[in-house]
Amino acid sequence: MVPYLNKRKHIYRFGFLLFLLSLSSCQILHTPQKTQAVQLPISFSGSTDSTTIGSLSRQTLFTDQNLVRLIDTALAQNPDLRMAMQRIEVAQATYQISRGALLPSVNAVAAAGVDRYGKYTMNGVGNYDTNLSENIAGQSRIPNPTPDYFLGLRSSWELDIWGKLRNRRRAAYTRLLASQEGRNLIVTALTGEVARLYYTLLALDAELEIIRENEALQRRAVELVNVQKAAGRVTELAVQQFTAQLLNTRSLEGRVRQEIAEAENQLNALLGRYPQPIVRGQSIEDQKIPALVMAGLPAQLVRRRPDIRQAERELEAANIDIAVAQAEFLPSLTLTPYVGLNAFRLSSLLNPVSIAAGVVGGLAAPIFNRRLLKGNYAVSVARSREAYFAYQKTVLTGVSEVVSNLKGLDNYQNVADLQRQEVAVLRQAATTSNELFVVGYATYLEVITAQRSVLDAELALIETKRAQFLSLVGLYRALGGGWQ
Q1: Region for 340 from its dihedrals, namely left if φ exceeds 0, alpha if ψ lies in -120 to 50, beta otherwise
Q2: CATH architecture for residues 31-102+161-329+371-478
C-alpha cells in the first residue's frame, strides 16, 4: 500500500510541474497601446517634390574641404559625442539585464549550518524516535546538535506567464534604439554647429578686411583734411571729426578681432582640442550656396530627423511601461529547483547516496501593496502622456525650423541683392563727395557721412551673406542631415 501511495504522490508532483510549465508557455500578454500619430502638413511650401538636401552627405553639401575636415575631426574627438556613445553602452547593458530576467538564475552553493533541537519539539522527538529504530545505525544516526551541509546548485526562475518580463525586455530594447538616435542627434547638431562657427569666422574675416580697407581710406582723408587746414580751407573741427571717425573704425577692428578669437575657441572646443588657429578656405563672398535647395516632404522629416525618432522611441517605451505596470497586479509564478549533495555528517557529504534534488513552485499575488502598484501604474500613465506631448512638440519644432530656414534662404537672397546695389551706389557717392570736397562743393560732414554709410552697408552685406549660409546649415540640420 505504501509504495502505491508514494507512486501516486510522484504522479501528482509531476502533474503539478507540467501545469506550471504550461502556464509559462502561455502567451497572455498585456499589449502596449500603439503610438498615436501626429497630424502633419502635406508640404512645407506648396511643393510636393520628395527631393531633400537632408539626404545629402556633408561632403556633397559643403564644398569647402577645410569645413569638411573640421567636421570629421569633431565627429572623432568631440566630448559630447563620446559621452553619447557611453550612454548607448549603458542602454545595451540594461537590455542585456532585461534579457537575463527571462532565464533562470543558477547559483553554485556551498552551505553549512547547525541546529540544536529542543526535547519537546517535533524535530527533537522525531529524531530521537528515529534513532531508536533498528534500521538506523552508525553514520545514519542523527546527532543533536544536527549539522546540515549542502554542496550543489540552487535556481530561481520566474515564469513569464503575463508577458511582464518580455515587455520589460522590449522597453529596454526600445530605449537602446532611442539612445542610438540620441547619438545621431548629437552628430547632426555637431555638424551644424561646426558649420555655423566656420561661416561665422569667414564672415568676421570679411568684416575685418572691409574695416581695414575703410581704415586706410579714412587715414588718407585725415591727411587730406590736415593739408586743407594748413591752407586755411577748413577748421580744426573738420580735422577732429575725421580723426574721430578713424578712431571709431580702428575700435571696430579690435572688436572683430576679439569675436574671431572667441569663435575660434568655441570651434576648437567642439573639435575636442585646445585653442589654436583655424585653417580657412575661400572668403565668404566666394562661397557658393546651391542654386536649388529642396526640403522634401514633412513625412520624410519624421523618418529622418533624429530627435523626432528619439522622441518616438521614448514614447513607445513609455507605453510598454504601462503594460508592465498592469502585469504587476497579477500573480507571479516562481520555480525554485535545487540539486546537490546534502548530509548531516561532513564525512558522508561526498557519498553518492547523499545526492538530493527538489523543486518548489509558488504563485504570489499582491494584496496589501496594491496601493504601491496603483501609484506605479499612475506614474507610468503620466510619463506616457508626457512622452507623447514631448513627441508632438518635437514634430512641431522640426516643421517650424524647416519652414523658417526655407524662408530665410529666399528672403536673405533678396536682401543681399538689394544690399549689393546699395553698396555700389554708396561707394560712388563716397567718391563723388571726396571730389566735391576737394573743389569746395561739399562739406566735410558730407564726406564723413558718405564714408560711414559705405562701411555700414558693406558690413551689413557680409552679415546678410553669413545669414544665408546659416539658413542653409539650419535647414540641413532641421531636415536631419549629416548623421549618416
Answers
A1: left
A2: Up-down Bundle (1.20)
